[in-house]
Specification:
Blueprint lengths: L1 H33 L21 H7 L4 E5 L2 E4 L6 H4 L17 E6 L2 E6 L4 H4 L4 E11 L8 E4 L3 E3 L2 E3 L4 E8 L4 E8 L19 E7 L4 H7 L1 H9 L3 E2 L2 E2 L6 H9 L4 H7 L12 H7 L3 E6 L22 E2 L1 H10 L1 E4 L2 E5 L2 E2 H15 L5 E7 L14 H11 L6 E6 L13 H8 L3 E4 L2 H6 L1 H10 L3 E2 L1 H15 L44 E3 L2 H20 L11 E11 L3 E9 L3 E7 L10 E7 L25 H13 L2
Parallel strand pairs: 11-19, 11-20, 13-22, 14-15, 14-19
Antiparallel strand pairs: 1-2, 3-4, 4-8, 5-6, 5-7, 5-9, 9-10, 12-21, 16-17, 17-18, 20-21, 23-24, 24-25, 25-26, 26-27
Helix pairs in contact: 1-18, 5-6, 6-12, 7-16, 11-12
Length: 651
């Protein structure tokens, strides 16, 4: 009897489900009869005739008399980090631990002997019953389509209090006697035993190079969001490159300007950064050839500089110590996100893992020439305020590593300021995106041996500089290590030279190979356009964006934009127009134009266009990294119905 009752209930449930499915489909079709999702973008109530007033705070900035650098060919205005224009956008974030308990395992070094050790004093905090632990080596697995994204583990081997290990990274897992997992972690191992010996011995007095970067932090944001870090840098003999400007849109062009001395087009002429970045020139290869030990580590592996946005990354490890497999395994343990960013990877923050790697690398090879690049995205890339949560940690890192910088030239920097968010609708945000922070610390031994070079660096700190100058500076470091080294001139900037040689007082953006769209020299005033003119300019701008999208093979997947709102429009004293617009579907774009000689709005020359709001959620249908910033993906009606039904059925 009970089975029959259950059968009737099941039949009733099935009929109810079918009725609901039919209802959902009918409702969807009714909606689609009024809205053609294939051809029409979502509408907002704004039209191109509804124009906002120009930004008032922008006009206040016009009257500033303070400059970061003030030379005949380049005056760069100084942004007040605490000004009214951006004050409401900064809200301090608190640091949060990834685990309430200290890590149960750690790596102990005794000379060349490496031991994976369990901290016996912490066992009771993890379990009231006996714990059993095992370890496995982390392996890099090269796959055909994504050669840099594979990682696996060997068999997990049980061990007691400690065990000798020798591998680039080891994974640890501990269960209690009831087979409940109580702990997981992964450790990188940095030891001379993992360095291949078939290379020349460098000059013992050669200067080491350490580059540590934090993504998306401008000079002003560093002072505002990371005051402890800023204060440490200013008080501890770091040289502040006040005129340092970005040369490209995002991380890769600005980083490869330093590492390769080329712009992106020149880079593509010699290699394919999307498919085979191994073939691209990178100065760390030259340092390795000179006998240097090399290392590269970066957090947030999904958006890593050489891997994100369709790039396949490296087929072979590019440096002696390549920490991507270690970081990928740490993220597999479990990620905790803050503001959409992977803040925690296992029981430790991603940023602290990278800083610990830099410290370990620096200490391990204290007396040997080395080249290391360590990059952090996890607490800065997507949010203006998240760096405040890591300010004390970064300051402590700088204090600790400063004790181990003998014979090391230390570069601490960013690639650009934050590229999207509310701050990018302000002029302070426009300037900040183009003006990343950049500091250099020289060891006392360098200052004594190269007094003139040190003096020139101090002079150049108040001149216009770019990534290509840093590349040429690294060429000088190679020459100091090997007097037979032939200086490889930057292709991206034939006129650039090392910061150890004095830069011309009259240097312009063109001479520093800073493209016009990123140049902030002498942009000291804007004349607001009349409503009719700025509407015409904005309509031309949106039309240019649509034409840009249509040039791509996948452009058919994207909506056509229509002008919604003009956020700002102005003309500089150099006859260029700066525009910020909001479109339908909703996106925010910024662009600059050069006016035709006759002043005709129909003959504007587009210098650049960039998206200034987050776009990852709207570009899901695009595989091209060049298009994703501009594409707002269409919603296919059939797919929409399937997704709606599946959401109900949880299929």
């Amino acid at each position: 009897m009970r089975n029959c009752k259950i059968h009737r209930i099941n039949l009733k449930n099935q009929r109810t489900r079918r009725v609901l499915i039919i209802f959902v489909v009918i409702a969807a079709l009714l909606i689609l009869s009024y809205v053609d999702l294939d051809d029409k973008a979502p509408q907002s109530r704004l039209s191109h005739k509804q124009i906002t007033d120009p930004n008032i705070s922008f006009r206040r900035w016009n009257n500033t008399h303070k400059f970061l650098i003030d030379t005949p060919s380049c005056k760069i205005p100084e942004v007040d980090p605490f000004g009214d224009e951006t004050s409401g956008l900064y809200e301090p974030e608190e640091y949060s631990q990834c685990s309430s308990r200290a890590p149960l395992s750690y790596i102990r070094k005794d000379g060349d002997h490496i031991t994976l050790t369990i901290n016996q004093s912490l066992l009771s905090s993890y379990s009231s019953v006996k714990i059993f632990c095992c370890y496995a080596r982390v392996l890099r697995v090269v796959k055909t389509r994504r050669p840099d994204d594979g990682v696996s583990l060997t068999e997990c081997i049980p061990f007691g209090d400690n065990v000798s290990v020798l591998a680039p990274a080891v994974f640890v897992s501990c269960d209690n006697r009831f087979q409940v997992n109580v702990y997981k972690n992964v450790h990188a191992i940095i030891t001379p035993r993992l360095v291949k010996k078939e290379r020349k011995d460098p000059t013992p007095s050669a200067f080491s190079v350490l580059l540590v970067g934090i993504d998306s932090i401008s000079k002003a944001s560093l002072e505002r969001a990371m005051p402890q870090t800023f204060d440490f840098l200013e008080k501890n003999d770091f040289v502040n490159l006040k005129g340092y400007s970005k040369i490209g849109l995002n991380t890769l062009p600005n980083l490869m300007g330093i590492l390769g001395g080329t712009d992106m087009q020149q880079m593509r002429n010699h290699c394919d950064p999307n498919d085979n970045i191994d073939g691209c020139y990178n100065i760390w290869k030259v340092f390795r050839e000179k006998g240097y030990v090399t290392a590269y580590g970066e957090d947030s592996t999904g958006i890593a500089s050489f891997n994100c946005c369709g790039k396949k990354g490296f087929r072979s490890p590019p440096t002696d110590f390549y920490f991507r497999p270690y970081m990928m395994m740490a993220e597999r343990i479990g990620v905790v996100k803050r503001h959409g960013m992977s803040f925690c990877a296992g029981p430790e923050t991603e940023g602290e893992r990278i800083m610990d790697l830099a410290k370990d690398f620096q200490r391990t090879f204290q007396n040997r020439p080395k080249f290391g690049l360590f990059w952090m995205n996890s607490f800065s890339h997507d949010n203006l305020n998240m760096p405040t949560a890591m300010d004390a940690k970064v300051k402590d890192f700088l204090g600790e590593i400063s004790q181990h910088l003998d014979n090391t030239i230390f570069f601490f920097f960013s690639d650009h300021g934050i590229r999207f968010g509310d701050i990018r609708t302000t002029h302070a945000g426009w300037l900040g995106e183009r003006l990343p922070f950049f500091y250099i610390h020289l060891p006392d031994s360098f200052k004594q041996q190269h007094r003139k070079a040190y003096k020139n660096l101090q002079i150049n700190s108040k001149r216009l500089t770019s990534a290509f100058d840093i590349y040429m500076t690294l060429q000088d470091v190679l020459f100091f290590a090997d007097k037979t080294h032939s200086i490889n001139q930057s292709l991206g900037c034939p006129q650039c030279h090392s910061l150890f040689s004095e830069i011309s007082h009259n240097r312009s953006c063109e001479q520093a190979a800073i493209p016009p769209e990123w140049c902030v020299c002498n942009v000291t005033s804007y004349v607001n356009l009349e409503d009719e003119l700025k509407t015409k300019a904005a309509l031309v701008f949106v039309d240019e964006i649509n034409k840009l999208v249509e040039r791509y093979k996948q452009g058919y997947k994207c909506y056509r934009y229509r002008l919604g709102d003009i956020i700002f429009a102005g003309v500089t004293q150099f006859d260029s127009i700066l525009l910020r617009v909001k479109t339908n579907p909703e996106a925010k774009f910024e662009g600059s134009f050069r006016l035709a000689t006759n002043g005709s709005m129909s003959q504007l020359h587009l210098l650049n266009v960039t998206r200034i709001d987050s776009y990852a959620a709207n570009s899901w249908c695009i595989e091209s990294s060049a298009l994703d910033m501009f594409c707002y993906c269409k919603q296919n009606s059939i797919d929409w119905i399937k997704l709606t039904v599946c959401k109900y059925l949880k299929c």
